Amino acid sequence: MTTIADRLANAQHRIEQAAQISSRNANEIQLLAVSKTKPNSDILAAYTAGQRRFGENYVQEGESKVNALKDCCPEIEWHFIGPLQSNKTKIIASHFHWMHTVSREKIASRLNEQRPKEMPPLNICIQINISGEASKSGATPEELESLASKIEQMPNLILRGLMAIPTATSDKQLQTDEFQQLQTLYQELKSLYPRVDTLSMGMSNDLEQAIAQGSTMVRIGSAIFGERDKP
Ligand SMILES: *Cc1c(COP(=O)(O)O)cnc(C)c1O
């Protein structure tokens, strides 16, 4: 039987190998453990094994986990990676360290207003809809520059980079094309704002391809915590 600690070590190992193949330093690629739908005991197991960054997708679940794990796991850095409605922004602004899915000025501006003054600025990634499908969330590449410049002017937010969920496909060429387009947008953003340092892309099944195309943060759920129950 494999444990969460074993699977975490395995995910780390995959990151190191993928980095090596691309002649990259594995230290520049962070592992975000995606714990959505999983119990607090699983998060504690990963924390005990040394993991510090965790990603959650659902507002209520995330809030309750942040509160429940505050005392036993004080060093957790919480990342919100799910869709967010504007009436829920306050919960994210007051509980999380990072928010990966900003795609509209309205959401950014509410997070900026609602970030508690005693907390450091909220780290922001702009989510990009790279496939251009209307059904998907994220800003279009054309909207990126203007949204980034607005976020830059918000004192309680720090623009850290881009996040994307590329098309789920077995077509390796399409997948590589999308990762490459994201990497290009990321480099453009970085040239405008040198502080930008995060390209959040790659999940359990495609982290190797994402790292080959410059990912700096892979979001790994099922490879660490096992398959999720279907909702
Ligand atoms: C669930 C989720 C992940 C993790 O996916 P796995 O395939 O389980 O690794 C990563 N990113 C986002 C945005 C997710 O919703």
Automatic annotation (TrEMBL):
Pfam families: Ala_racemase_N (PF01168). Residues 8-228 form the Alanine racemase N-terminal domain. Keywords: Pyridoxal phosphate. GO terms for molecular function: pyridoxal phosphate binding. The keyword GTP-binding does not apply. Coiled coil: none annotated. PROSITE patterns: UPF0001. Pyridoxal 5'-phosphate (PLP)-binding protein, which is involved in PLP homeostasis. Belongs to the pyridoxal phosphate-binding protein YggS/PROSC family. This is Pyridoxal phosphate homeostasis protein.
